[in-house]
## 1
Amino acid sequence: MFGKMMMQQLTIGAAITHAERYHTSTAVVGVETDGTIARSTWGDVAKRARQLGSALTKAGMKKGDRIATMAWNNIRHLEIYFGTSGAGFVCHTINPRLFDNQLEYIVAHAADRILFVDQTFLPIIAKLRDRLPVLERVIVMSPANEEARNILPEVEFYDTFIADGDPEFDWPDFDETHSSSLCYTSGTTGNPKGVAYTHRSTLLHSMALLAADGMALGAKESVLTVVPMFHVNAWGIPYGAAMAGCKLVLPGPKLDGDSLLSLIHAEQVTFAAGVPTIWAGLLGALAKGGSEKLPLTRTIVGGAACPPSMMETFREDFGVEVIHGWGMTETSPLGLTNTLKNSQLSLPVEQQNEIRICQGRPPFGVELRLVDENGVELPDATGTGELQIRGHWIVEQYFNRDANDLVDGWFDTGDIASIDEDGFVTIRDRSKDLIKSGGEWISSVELENTAIVHPDVVDAAAIGVPHPKWNERPVVLVKLVEDTQPTEESILSLYKDKFAKWQIPDRVLFVDEIPRNATGKIVKTKLREKYGGLELA
């Protein structure tokens, strides 16, 4: 008779249990909203996560109920990650940077029953409370205080809520394909779309992060998660850190270069992850002190391409390897990381650097292909095409939608890319002309539609213009009704009540014509060529 291997469910409860048993004294450090440092351990995080899971169960939450968070990277947020999912609920992280209408839509669409919120974001919820009837309870992530009650009288408090929970609470048994967490896209084309990750997909994704060609997370590392925990689950790092037993450092709200540099030294951070604008700020802080030895050895950069000059400065001046990564909400998000192959280590530095500036290659568990405009698959290393992806942690169907969101079993990323003979991918462009500012997407179509509302505007086009800090910023070009002379301010005022501040265009330019092709589509390549050199402070 053939032998047989054990079958155990891949669940987030198992991940935090592992950290509790084998890395119980390993430090977890968090910066609170007021700047104070909170210190915990994986053992204590696990204990409080169990208390939370127990308290939620006693509060009548049922398997699969969505429990929302709106919070910075801190220890209580980490406890919620594991306490909700481990107990069979779905952890729904909400991006507080979204516009009010988007927040209202997301909470209703997810049918969130409870919201855990950092006190710094409580005014947002107080303003929207009457528009969020689905929420049964709002719990501030702090000890009880009158300031929070003055903002929203109905609030409860995290420390009080979990006090009734059982620190010995046993994680329930359920299938690994049960949903564990929920993240929404930025809503660049219509309303935001939800992506529900499973316990299985999350743990397989975490294993890829632990691999040498993923993020190489291990128990010897001190890991700083600068990427927000409300942004694709901090790229999955909290789960991977628990599985590996890393020291984990959560930076709170202050992400300026000086604050991060101080934290890197104080906690001897060896690995960090974030978007390029964050690392530009860190370089600025380093420049103040001249040559400086850092404990940091490498950083994963995603959300936008990292300027080659920044990668070179980090590597040559500070000994920090900057590693490109690529992904999206629909890919959990790890799709690519850029680590050199053995055969490339003997190449001249200049050639290695040319490889490093692309987005990287897929780990095991991810497959890629390019297709032409007709959906016909293209061979690799033969040009560019639309990038499609499939794998163990790639979305199959958006949350609460009946339609399948795949094309012949593949997910269309919306990116235009090329793949070389070694499997390295270079993202060439967005197929839908989205604008990416500070790692967040802005819809050019929505910007254009708003400008058209102005009575003196007959046509409009929005493009991204390079920016020294934010990678890109939106600029709107408008064609005016004949014999009218509106001011730039009058057009920008249209955005103030409809868009988040960071989504509002930096400039409005008045042009004689908006170039369009034979089918009526705006030819944005011409606009970028003409206005891409515009200087934005």
Note: The longest strand covers residues 457-467.
## 2
Amino acid sequence: MTSKAAAIVILGPGSLATARRIQQRYPDALIHGLAGRVEGADRQYLEFGATLREFYQQDTPIIALCAAGIVIRTLAPLLLEKGAEPPVLAVAEDGSAVVPLLGGLGGVNVMARDIAAALQVAPAITTSGELRFGTCLLNPPRGYHLGDLEQGKRFVSDLLAGESVRVEGIAPWLEQAQLPEDAQARLAIRIDSAAGTPTADELRIYPRNVVVALAAGASTNIGETLGGVGLAPQSLACLLAADSDMARPELHEAASALNVPLRFATAQGEVAQWLNEALGQGVSIHAAGEHAIAVAELPLDPQRIGRARGRLAVIGLGPGAADLMVPAVRAELDRATDVLGYETYVRMAGPFRADQVQHCTDNREEMQRARHAFELAAQGRSVVVVSSGDPGVFAMAAAVLEALHESTDVRWHNVDLQILPGVSASLATAAQAGAPLGHDFCVMSLSDNLKPWSIIEKRLDLAAEADLALAFYNPISRSRPWQLGRALEIVAQHRTSDTPVVLGRDIGRPGQTLRVTTLGQLTPEQVDMRTMVLIGSSTTCVFPRAEGGEWVYTPRWYGLKPA
């Protein structure tokens, strides 16, 4: 079953009460409501079909509170290409019916029973094997891996046809199943971690009870290592490596190829002690060349072995509208354990799960915030530092990299650092107006908090002389009331008074405003700290929109217009 949090998707306000009851059973699941129709949902979406297909392709479990037929028709085009199949359920708006539709091998029937219990109704389960035996043999619980799905289908078909079966190995979840058991049966369900090819009469299920502890700098041929001691790769729970190898690409590639977590320890020899103390059961240790292999009696929880490599993502929310946030940023926020940033931006990034820790600070505490983020990530946490717009444009990416550059802490340098882009305010404002930045342009901050005003004046003069379109961030504030006026005087030395100017305030947020004026008409009083100022070049054009207002664009030709 997928470990991703489910998405509860609703179309109308009448579904919200049922959705909240389901959310009590799945606290990590967020309720997605149709924009303009549903108030009070955790998130809003614009188009039902596109949203449902996106969740499906991202392997996100879907709980759709609508007619089953709507879900079937929406996802039908994706079913032609068989790939990942997350659980998909249709739930009646009033909670009177729970219908599992897709994802039988992803735990959809388990979810159906859970949701039905929460709603106090009977789930509409139609899977023959589950109805007959009370369990899905092809979907063993977390910690176990089914060997061969196609062979498993034939195996279950034989059982449904009347064959009996014997169980070999430890399988606690089968103790309450209604299997036709017979100690002399031809068919066998075999649960162990031994290597070897299953016979035609076996359903092989592998407990994930093996850990390979890798020597520092050693080779990563895990398959050969396991085969040398007679263990199946399917039984691997995780790889354990030394902290000194935390940033070693080959290790991450090997873990990814095996689809297992990669964990880290201070010393390789700690593995046996950890497993014995954490699980209270016997663990056998095998030497395998430079590596050590630990084998437990029951499946192992990788989260209790060593620690993960910490992750720090610096993300850009875009201008504010949810539909202008790039999907990679949304996914990073969903996986985070800790979210750091200026309080206004952190609130914009929500809502958050109860287990996600928010660290809100003042907008001026950038370096302190960056260092705090590295300290958290160095503990193995998944940390997000939030910026509005794009994190690399007058935002937190530079501060985070500066903190890392100045640090000699090896733990910080071992953190998995990612910079994820967002739609910058200048680009969002330009898109609303048309294309005022359609040719060469210059982006500048008029704040002299971190650089001398003399530098700003020099750059302004050169950029204006070069006839670049200009985008002003941080144009004015109570503590900087005169700088914008001076900047406009400098630009006016190189531009005519009728040069188009675009003023975008809170673009992408509630109450956004867009105004087109000219350099001659613009005064500092028309601008505040939340306004983006775009000043055109000598070629920037303005013409009327059919619905009112004006289009502004800077053509891509310069000087002579092409034929």
Note: Residues 6 and 61 are 5 Å apart (CA to CA).
## 3
Amino acid sequence: MPPSSSRSAIPGIQPAPGFSFRDGQRAFLRKLARAYEQGRRNHLGVFVPGYGKTLTALGAFQVARSMGVADRLVVFVPRGNLRDQYADPDEMARMLHWIGAPPMRFCVADSSEVFLKNRSIPIVVATYQYACGRSGNRALQQYCQRGNPLFVLDEIHHLPEDGTWSDAVGNLQRRSLIGLSGTPLRSDGKPLFGVPHKVVTSEDGTRSRYYDALHEVSLREAHAEGGILKRIEAHVVDYSITMVEEDTGRQVEFTLQELKTELEDEADVDRYFARRSLRFHDVYLETLLGPAVTRFQAKRADLSATVGSQVRSPQMLVICMSNRHAADVLDFMKRRYSSLRCTRIGQDVPPPKRARRLEAYRRGEIDVMVQVDMIGEGTDIKTISVIAKLDLVSARSKTLQQIFRGMRYYDGWNEDANVCDVFTSDDLGLSDTLDWMTREVQEGVRLREDPSSRPSPEKPEQDDRSSWNVTSVSENDFETHAVEMSGSGNRAALRVRRQKFDPEDAAALNVSEREDALRKECSTLANRLARELQDRGRQVSIRDVHAAAKKRFRKSQKDMPLALLKKKKQWLKRCLQMKRLV
């Protein structure tokens, strides 16, 4: 049951004794009632995973029923969400009781064999896949025409305005629509189906379209409430890569983050080959998975020493870029960490075997699951506590969904154990996203510890959540590696040698000298950028360049530490490449 808080009047809601909504749920339902009074019918609710979207959907239906807006509810969900969120009749009955609704029957529509034997049923939970089928869409049309349905679209970020799922839902009669999502963004930039949007004009005149949520519950607010999500600790690994052409002897050295920028045109086949092959190599896997497994084993040992065997042990999730990659990673895990129970799932694994392995993972019989985007939204395995992200996905919305799989709070552990560790490599450029998540969590914990500074859940505040802007992040400690590539063209061979970086070794890195050198490099690049922009007719001085950098990185160049100077250098290079301040 959600944590207790003060009650407030919501049309149609008569909470059962001992029950109360979460702050964000109550705020959403009260705003929904006001919007219905004003004649507004389409809305968006943004709730972090674990916040109780099912309960919110049922509460919204009760509000709509009491106000004469709707008399039946159709919840659309991705097929993978049925098990953990909507298919349990006992849980649905409990939630209806909590909000003071009368007992109501519901059915699940995922195949023609089980759908709508009785079309007077007030609640239907349908998968988007079912709605896209000819017979399913026809049956839903007949059902919706018999009344005034409220549509709740779960995980609405899957529905662009011109998508297949959107077309199927758009073909159905409805009285009101509510979209729900934890990350209502799409990497392709397309607006979401059916929900309000607003256009924002920036200082430079650029117009951007963002969603307009009726209410949002952010990471910060969820952690301020507590008991919803784990905290997050991010670990980012970078590399130094050296490639050698046998014919010419030419050497090229760069970090993986620089490699990502170089590969935007993929003109250099050797570099492309190095990047693709590196992720299959034992050195890369050892470097990224080694610290992740070490942390994983330490967490299991600490928990065992604290509470013994009374609670579930932490589990680890590894995200790979392909079925072949996952197979190689699983082979590596079995060779290096044979004491751990590991398996994998993917599209190349037969569905029955895939289902058995996933079920064993749910029950805690598997320690490490290696997979390719098979554990997505709605998969509720609260004991996932370490995530190793080895794939090539860098889109912010998708990255957040991946990380959210390990962030659901587990009541069986104490507060200190409810931490999700994320390990990834720096070539994906995820430092900004991970830093934003970490800062949001830290600020939420601070607000929880100091309730007097916590704003009202309905108080409007200036916030950048709708645009999900993030700022720079200091890098974590990392090991450096060198990759030698000999030969030419596609037949080049890959050799890797490991170099241990010792932060205590003054000879390995003189921080002060390196900072001075980077400041000089940044000054040179800033001068060059200012001249470049002036030549293109823009009134930009070197002072303007440094001011833009200070706004982005929140520090002047003279106060920047080594890691931040590296970020500024990379930013200046991108600005030169794009011929503008980015």
Note: Residues 229-453 form a domain with the Rossmann fold fold (CATH 3.40.50.300).
## 4
Amino acid sequence: MSAFNDIRDYVAIPRVLSLKLSSDGSRLVSAVQSLDPDGKSYGTALWAIPLDGEPPHRLTRSAKGESAAEFTVAGDLLFTSARPDPTVKDPTDEVPALWLLPRGGGEARQVASRPGGVAAVRTAGDVVVFASDVLDGEEETEAERRKARKDAGISAILHESAPVRYWDHDLGPGRTRLFAARLGDGDRLEDVRDLTPDPGEGLRDVSFELTPDGSTVVATWRVHLPLGQFRSELVAVDVASGERRVLFADDRHDFIGPLAVSPDGARVACVRERHTALDVSARAELWIGGLATGQGRACAPDLFPADLAWAPDSSAVYVAADHQGRRPIFRVTLDGAEDGTVTRLTQDDSAYLGLNPSPDGRSVYALRSAVDRAPGPALIDVATGEITDLPSPAPRPEVPGTLTEISATADDGATVRGWLVLPEGASAAHPAPLLLWIHGGPVGSWNDWQWRWQAWIMAQRGYAVLMPDPCMSTGYGQEMIDRGWGDWGPRTMADLDAIVDVAVARDDIDAERLGAMGGSYGGYMANWVAGHSDRYKAVVTHASLWHLDQFAGTTDTPMYWQREFGAPGSDRYAALSPHHSLERISTPMLVIHGDKDYRVPIGEALRLWWDLQRVGAEAKFLYFPDENHWILKPGNIVAWYETVLAFLAQHVLGQEWKRPESVA
């Protein structure tokens, strides 16, 4: 029985989330997400992946789960968990604390805690740096003040600058700070001190790393500007004194993660992302700069870095970046006669993340996935590019069909490529109905395994799924992004039409049974398609943008979107907002949205739903009061797929509508 046949079996598949190699290269661990015993939630645990071919084994087990694994120089394992501390008689609120699991085995022990919890952690030598949410005011009274606030039933947050929300959570009343400590021989970290006692909003969504000698923290730092604007700089914080200096700053760019410090401690690699405007498109590039000099340069301009890591001799940076519907690993040489040379290391169809070069420089450990391959650990030989899959703590499910690649020539001569998932048995005698899936972003690509939008569930039920990369997709050069900038609907629609035409011309595709689906920006395009085409039998729009003017003022980051669209009420909103085509919608629509979605607020779905109602359009609204931009709870995932499948079965397959039991 396929794991994709029953949605409940699908949500129970364990998922490999991360990969971390010890500094001596002897140990590899992964965080694995799996279904909790109650079937209502997911939990995480740390697993060891032996490098000698032995089966992986579980290292941690707690109801609260574990994450943020980091190895100490001695090989002990640091991680965060909200598990209760057995040494405390009456624990209060369970917030994540820092734990240490000895290399030689035994029970994990809590080594640091904060009233606002412990988030990310980094270590070098005997130095540990971690992030924590801290209330303004006296540190000694913070726990008491948090309790008083809770006991008084106060949830109010007074803001004096934007933003106020991010993706799925409220910002404040605490602010992120960085703390430094020393690893001792006792049960707790020693000499814990606040490195950033007055950060303001500077460390919101911080990425940070430690230099190899533990003397300096390199971190992103948000600088707030007038009129609700901000930019991100890169700073260096001295661990001994707390002194902060700016490394890289530019009024026209953000310096953001992922970031990494070279093993020799001399340079830092990060991503430089330019600020967009009406006529300036999105662009991200690898940035290399000196820690002592503060001087840097852009490298590998055609790569949008998704992950990066230094070679152990500091002569190169390994970069995972989208490329032609894959995410290969590239090697960017930074020294000698070949300085600036970009070499593709992996030649397969996979997508890579979690890069961990081995200390001897011979290999890179990474998570390897693809559209038809769930993530798992792999070893890449640097000299030959040979790939060896390692035993995975979450065996990959077999997919029910085949994956093929197609391309089309758009009306402006550009090539538009994509993946086509074909169900088993699709042929000229039995052509498959086709679902067009439009990716989000819009700066993104279909190139790896999707837990959120799983095409193989559709293939199991006989659908072919087209996953195209139209304009503004990454991995095709800057020109591909420039083509669609400020022209979201019309330019993307033309690209989609071109590749759909190629797909339906195949004899194994049924050109009369088509559906279109998309989420986020893909949802925007699903709405656009509904108002500009009648070739589809059904449209599913998830977390979608409907009224651009409304969206651009209520999203969690108005600044970002208004750079591209202009001030509210400008011409671009009028030209590109899907709501202007409401009266032309004749295709049945399924609207899906989560109330906790702050990137695309629920008001978009509510307005779309009411607009469809008031013009008498055929539509349904699947509403999740407790979900955000993503549908994350196992039961809600089941409800999502069952409702989508029932809606498609009615309108694409011509079957009688049957309300799913999960939403009965």
Note: The mean pLDDT is 96.
